[in-house]
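Example record used in the benchmark description.
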Amino acid sequence: MLGLLDIDPAAAAPIWRQIEDGMRRLVASGALPVGTAVPSVRELARELRINPATVSKAYQRLTADGALEVRRGEGTFVAERPAGALADERERLLADGATSFVEAAISMGVAKNDAIAAISAAWREIKDAADGGKP
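Model output (structure tokens):
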């Protein structure tokens, strides 16, 4: 799971928030389907080399929100959610990312057309890499 979660200790966002957001992205994208077991708090803390309390906080928030469920004696799993919940979560995550990008672009004085061009270029680069370099 370590490769699936992008944690940056130098980032402004607290690590528990990065774990929470990363897990939300994995669930919303389908990379972690409903019913999938997630690593225990201790396992993930060991993988990420962080304090278990940090992972616990993220898991508690995800459980309180209904994204994860704890099955006593079995572990923690991706929870079943109402039909539109994943679409709503994807939309929210996309809007959050877009807002962050636009705030950064505006703070640097970038014109809207240049920002859109940067998104298009990044989209092509990342999509090509995901497709194995195929056009």
